[in-house]
Design a protein that fits this description.
The complex is a heterodimer. Chain A is 26% helix and 34% strand. In chain A, the strands form 4 sheets. In chain A, strands 6-7-8-3-9-10 form a 6-stranded mixed β-sheet, with helices on both faces. Chain B folds into 2 domains: 80 residues, no CATH class; 204 residues, MetI-like (MetI-like fold). Classes of the chains: A alpha+beta, B mainly alpha. Chains A and B meet through strand 6, helix 2 and helix 4 of A and helix 12 and helix 13 of B. The structure holds adenosine-5'-diphosphate and magnesium ion (MG). The site of adenosine-5'-diphosphate has 11 residues of chain A, from strand 2 and helix 1.
Chain lengths: 369, 338
Amino acid sequence: MKIALEALNKHFGKVKAVDSLDLEIGDGEFVALLGPSGCGKTTTLLMLAGIYKPTSGHICFDDRVVNHLLPKERNIGMVFQSYALYPHMTTFDNIAYPLKLKRVRRKEMKERVQRSADMMGIGDLLDRRPAQLSGGQQQRVALARALVKEPAILLFDEPLSNLDAKLRLRMRGEIKRLQEDLAVTAVYVTHDQVEAMTMASRIAVMNYGVLQTYGAPNQLYDHPDTLFVAGFIGAPPMNFLEMTFKERDDGFYLKSQALEIRILAEQGALAKQDSIPQRVIMGIRPENVSIVAERDGDFKAEVYLIEPLGREDLVTFRFVDEEIRALVSAPFDGRIGETICLKLDKEKAHLFNPETEVSVLRTGNGRSS
Amino acid sequence: MKRRTEKIGERGKPPLPVLLGTRNIGFSRMRGQLAPYAFLSPTLILVTLFFFIPLVMVFILSFTKLDMTNFGILEWWKPVNWSLDNYVKIFTNRFLSRILGNTIMYVAVTLALFNVGMALVIALITTHIKRRTGFAFRTLWFLPRITPVVVYTMMWRALAGPAPMGVINKYFLVPLGIGGGEYLLHTHPWVFIFLVNGFIGASFGMILFASAIESIPKDYTIASKVDGATTWQTIRYVELPMIKWPLLFVTTYQTLSLLTSFEQIMLLTDGGPGLYQTEVWSLTAYHRALTSYFGNTQWGYGAAWSVVLVIIGVVMAVIYLRVFKFRELVEEPKIDQL
Ligand SMILES: Nc1ncnc2c1ncn2[C@@H]1O[C@H](COP(=O)(O)OP(=O)(O)O)[C@@H](O)[C@H]1O
Ligand SMILES: [Mg+2]
């Protein structure tokens, strides 16, 4: 089922939990709503489910406005962070609950519960109570309950946040695979950008109830529209340096107290149009900072911290009063306190207007300021 | 400071006299053993004095014929003066079935309609409307409980009064042409007994149920609605099972309270208007033990009525625990894999 949100608002008193949200989700698409805690993700989801009535705006399922429809008229399955399994019911009764409310006949109900429990690999736990299940098992029961009525839309509200790291990784894969097999439209709320990146075909990034950007994971990673998106997506996060923008005869330069680098001509041309008082924030991902021999370097910095990540080491450098982090192949052979030459991959640099916090390199399909 | 560390370090062994001095040894040893009791003593004394001793005394008294006429003469504490006569008298009393019937009706109807029934209905309504409105409404329902019981009961007597004075007659029944304006406590004593007790009793359950309902995590009700339930189905299948504990508690507690409460009935009808018409068990115990038609208050006989009432109460409590499957409520989890 296709979903379209048009100028959707939800206000709680003075709090604008969701602020004129426009979003289109294709049939069978897996979309992630990503943003920090309190940015209005759950509120958006609950409006989709029909629990909250929008303050204004429209929610459309397949071009039909559904604002007035009750939750039970929307054919939605939902999975919660808390699992929300009814503690007084057995696994069977939990999964069967949506069917019981639909007055499905006993025999059919049994078959469907068994089928959806088997699909989640919990077919042998049907007589247990939630308190007798582990977190991972509870999550599977919750999924089975959401799937049993064959919903047109699946909603997930941070479903993996309560699981341990290993289990989270496994469930991540299973949910994604399941959604692809069933080809059901899914909206997946998370504050974890890795989850959003790995699972979704498109990510909607929200902050303070406002949609920041909406696009494919790679698009958001390679060409973030705003400073917020640039900082939020990617782990370890992007480095930001405040620079002044200078045009010289031989090209465009970014300059700070400690370093001066020449940027690409097309970047410079765009920045020239945009950065008003010649100030600009440069963003560069840790993997685009490399250690080089002295003559090739852009600047020198002192090793401050080394964090081994296994395949790579994350090294924090300090120079003057700034900090920059680099991902270097392990093992990093420098020592803390050592001064090392660094080079930035200028092609991968991002430039942001410090006032509007919008990318000066934005590719046109993002939000304009 | 030094002494303190020594004492702690040498726990169990006699502390060094050199360091502590002779007077301290005995004191600290005694303190170790008696300290818990010293802290408990205020409560222990109160409980012993005002609960345990009276309980034992009532139990003993129930086997004696102690009354006002032989007070100071009868040696009630001596087993020779004990017999089962009082109990025989109770169970051969020709009004026993009426008193027992009255008690069962009084407890069952007040409990079902008000203390649990109405309490649950108000709790459900006030938790499913706007929070502040619900809260204000519940506060209003507390008025009968915080009004002094005599004042409150007298107000009801005034309400029930005969035609020109009684509010109910004057403004409701007479204009509607119902009844002949009689004193309603004479014509419908039970209705007023239920109402007077119920309006006090309902507020207790209401507060407990409302707070229990409000503390149900929102995810459960949201999940239930997304699963396709109406509000009523959500209440029926999700919320009510989740407040099983308060339901058990209120039912048990209020059964026992109602079994032992007689003050409202005493003030309203005093067991009347007909012979034993509204007399309940606890009121009988009171009447036998502390008031008398003949000037002799039968303490022993009254005590026997109370003892039977206590036994009835204990039996009821045990039955409730069974009915509500108490064991299931405290079931152990069994997790065997991730
Ligand atoms: N029922 C509510 N009443 C009042 N404020 C609410 C309610 N639900 C959410 N909010 C507020 O709306 C904002 C967004 O909340 P929410 O959608 O739960 O955020 P998220 O799920 O992204 O963490 C927060 O500021 C929160 O305090
Ligand atoms: Mg949330």
